[in-house]
Amino acid sequence: EIVLTQSPGTLSLSPGERATLSCRASQSVGSSYLAWYQQKAGQAPRLVIYGVSSRATGIPDRFSGSGSGTDLNLTINRLEPEDFAVYYCQHYGSSLVTFGQGTKLAIK
Amino acid sequence: EVQLVESGGGLVQPGGSLRLSCAASGFTFSSYWMHWVRQAPGEGLVWVSRIDSDGGSTIYADSVKGRFIISRDNAKNTLYLQMDSLRAADTAVYYCARDGTHLDYWGQGTLVTVSS
What is the band of A94 on the pLDDT scale with cuts at 50, 70, 90? Predict the structure, then answer.
């Protein structure tokens, strides 16, 4: 089972800044099987990025995913107030799904 | 519009049982694999189980294997999670999610509280 470790635990930034969130896998992951989700307080998670770098429907282009092997990143350019939330990376392999522990993107 | 609506959560004593439902609409339910994911209060997301499109293949997280059963009724467009031998550690919001491009649509969740 692949273990995903996200860093930092909390990232405090101001609107307009750039956020870079990291997800490290315990072993190399195929590009088709890594996704990122956004979760706001009291809401269900929302798919943001899939297949490492493809934006989900309705996700603005300030969101981008990158990386390969064991190191994946989610970058959010020009942070908007609605971007502050918890973000989870997720791996889907051999029918098993694992999530990272989450990174909280907080307003500074 | 794709909609997933969970129901069936509530307060149950340790050792008890509960059946969750997830009513799907706005898409061809029978064409999609489906998942259950849970989130304990203040904690992160934890995958629970997955079922394929016709119900012939299921898989579970080790933490629920032997206690939970995922099933579906494609005629009723409904996903189920039968939860037996419940423990305090099963207390969580339970979400159903569609397996499209990853878990592309989620319900709003239903809260299960296991407590005496």
Answer: confident
